[in-house]
Amino acid sequence: MFRLIRWIWVPLLLVGWIIMSYRTQDQRNLFLGVSIQEIEKERDDLLHSWYPRIVDTISGGYWTNFEYDWTPSESQSKMLVTQARGLWTAARAAQVYPQEKIFRQAAAHGFTFLTKIMWDEKQGGFSQYYPGSENDYQLTYGNAFALYAMAEYAKINPDPAVLTWLEKSFVWLEEVAHDPEHLGYFNLIYPEGLADSLKTGANWGDPLGKDQNSSIHILEALTNVYQVWPDELVKKRLAEIFHLVRDTMVHADGYLRLFYTQNWQPINHQDSTRDYILEHLYFDHRSFGHDIETAYLLLDASKVLYGKYDLTTLAVAKKLVHQTLANGFDQDYYGLFDRAYQFPGKLDLEIVNKEKNWWGQAEAWHTLALMSTIYPKEAKYQEAFQSMWRYIKSEMIDYQYGGWYNNGLDTDPANKTARKAHEWKSAYHNGRALMQVLEYR
Fold it and tell me: Strand 188-189 vs strand 138-139: parallel, antiparallel, or unpaired?
């Protein structure tokens, strides 16, 4: 009888062991329920779609505009933000692919163009466009990205000359853009003697005002700068902008106001008519992508400043993410909408732009991965992370030509033939997301 039992149970135990081994192996191949191999493949495909293709070996820097099939566009302007993001992405990719020379070479190429061509020798600071004009303004947002990119480049090239440029750029920002009275940074810096009639402010509001978009990316930049140049003034300014974003700009309900007066009074149109609100929507709305991205940026800065995620910042990040989960996503987390507004007399937010832009999906996706690792027992983060990956695979990735569409095809099918790259679209957001998620494992 014992032999019979052994004859039956030993094979069953063996089968069970094999099944458990496969399950264990499957778990090792997944991160938060998503195939690691899929993420790695998309990271590799995306970054190799951009590099070395965007490297301009003729005029320097990076090509800006490409059509949907990666045919170079006829017009090729060079904006500071695009150039800086191209440098940052190449420098970060060089750390992911140390054996591939193309990324290190692309980063060196971008750094040379930024420092030799785009720096304004007369006014100081990096120019917004190349070639520029005498009426050009210096955009604090763009100069923040230059700092961010050069700090990343310093991680792969610790040459003293790189740190010298970091210091030079930071000092300029300190001298001309920092507000010593009300703290934070002004949005725009104009050339001396420029007539007031020419100070339009473009889409950046009052030249003496502050804005969320510039502030969160100054936070991002100084977080990176302090890691390679632990200067005391850098730390002071990092802590300052960190507390301004976390404690002043984040509303108690878990979202950020977009524009502010010089003394940090938020621009608010809720007492206006619906028509006025819609006409001036750019300056006052809920930007879901920025809200959830800011959760990540605050956590990142907290860790650099204090060596850990402090409890206050964790609570604020949770509010930002929860508000976005509750209001910004399509059904079953199938993509993140662009913006919403809470109109007067209404209890619920109204989605006023249903586009699902590439950068919002990328920032939400990797922030959800971070939240899942911090709070592994809170299943909603992992559920949303998995649903967003399904959305990205289905609606964002161009499997024919490579790269991501500007907007998800479910809400913007015509975008399939829109430019694959332009002034505001590089590999920075989605490239960072893919590299970041794989580091969270």
Answer: antiparallel
Could you tell me the two tokens for 376?
A: 């592994």
Give helix then strand counts, H and E, for the chain.
14, 11
User: Domain coordinates of the chain in residue numbers?
Assistant: 1-31, 43-439
Taking residue 18's Cβ as centre, other Cβ atoms within 10 Å add up to: 10
Task: Reduce the DSSP state of residue 363 to 3 states and report it.
Answer: helix
* Residues found in the chain: 441
Residue pair 174/225 in contact by the 8 Å Cβ criterion: no
* Second-level CATH architecture of 43-439: Alpha/alpha barrel (1.50)
> Distance of alpha carbon 142 from its chain centroid, rounded?
13
| pLDDT of amino acid 51 | 98
Shortest CA distance to 107 belongs to which of 50, 145, 65, 55?
A: 55
- Residue 398's alpha-carbon distances to 65, 275, 358, in angstroms, are 17, 37, 12
Secondary structure (3-state) at 79: strand
Across 12-16, 191-195, 219-223, 364-368, least confident range: 12-16
CA distance 138 to 131: 13
Q: What gap in Å lies between CA 363 and CA 129, rounded to an integer?
A: 26
Between 198 and 366, where is the model more confident? 366
CB atoms closer than 10 angstroms to residue 171:
12
Average pLDDT, the chain: 92
**What's the whole-number mean pLDDT along residues 94-109?**
98
Closest CA to 361 of 303, 415, 282: 415
Do 303 and 236 contact (CB within 8 A), yes or no?
no
Q: 421 exposed, middle or buried (CB, 10 Å; 0-12, 13-18, 19+)?
A: buried
How far apart CA 86 and CA 50 sit, in angstroms, is 9
